[in-house]
Amino acid sequence: MFSQTMVNLVSLLLPLSLFINIISLPLPARAISSCSGPCNTVDDCDGQLICINGRCNDDPDVGTHICGNSAPNGNNNCQPSGTLNCQGTSYTQYRCSPPVTSSTAAILTNNDFSQGGDGGAPSECDESFHNNSELIVALSTGWFNDKSRCGSLIRIMASNGRSVEAKVVDECDSVNGCDEEHAGQPPCRNNIVDASDAVWNELGLNKDVGEVDITWSMA
C-alpha cells in the first residue's frame, strides 16, 4: 500500500515539476521599439535608439529626435547660436537643426559640387569635388551632425509625389560663411537640403526656382 501511494504521489509531482521548470525558463530577449522603454544594453532598443540610464532614447551622436521631448536634454527647441555680419548684413547662426523624423520638413536648394562651383571647398565628407550628375546633398550643420551622416542615404520627397535617394557628402554650414572656403556665401539656414542638379532632375523640379519645400528622412 505504501509503495503504491508513493507511486501515485510521484506521478502527480512529476508533471508539476516539469511545469515549474518550463515557466522558470528565461524568456527570449525582445527589442523594445518604444521610447523610454526599459533596457540594459544597446541591443534592447530598436532602430537608432540607444540605452541611456536604463531607458531607450535618442542617440545624441546620431542626432535623431525620434523620442521628442523624452530626449536626454529634454529640449528639442533649436535656438540661434549667434549672428554673423557679412558685407553689412547680419545672418543668424545655428549649431542645431529641427528634429529628424520620418517626414522632416526642409527647404531644397541647389549646389554645384564641382571644382570652381558655388560649393567652395571640396566636400567635407571625403575632401573631394563631385560631378553634379551624382545624386548627392549637403545638410545643414545640425543635420550633418559633425560628419555622422557622411555617406548615409536620405530619401527626399517632393510635393509632386516624386522621391529620390541621395548620398550625404557635405555640410551646408549654418555657422560660418562669407569667406573663401564658403565661396563668399553666408551661413546656411538650419533647415536646408542642398542638392545637386541630378537630385533636382530626378524630382522633376526646376532648379531655377531656387528653393522648394520638401520633406526628407533617413533612407
Task: Describe the 3D structure.
The structure is a single chain. It is built from three helices and ten strands, in the order H-E-E-E-E-E-E-H-E-E-E-H-E. It is of the alpha+beta class. A six-stranded mixed barrel has the order 5-9-6-8-7-10. The radius of gyration is 27 Å and the shape is globular. About 4% of the residues have low confidence.
Order of helices and strands: HEEEEEEHEEEHE
**Proportion in helices:** 10-25%
The tally of helices reads 3
For the biggest sheet, the summary is:
6 strands, mixed, barrel
Strand content: 25-35%
Strand order of the biggest β-sheet? 5-9-6-8-7-10
Number of strands: 10
Give unreliable regions as ranges: 68-75
Shape: globular
Please tell me how large the radius of gyration is: 27 Å
Let me know the average pLDDT.
Answer: 80
- Gap between N and C termini, in Å? 75 Å
Structural class: alpha+beta
Main location: secreted
InterPro entries: Kiwellin-like, RlpA-like_sf
Signal peptide: 1-31
Family: Belongs to the kiwellin family.
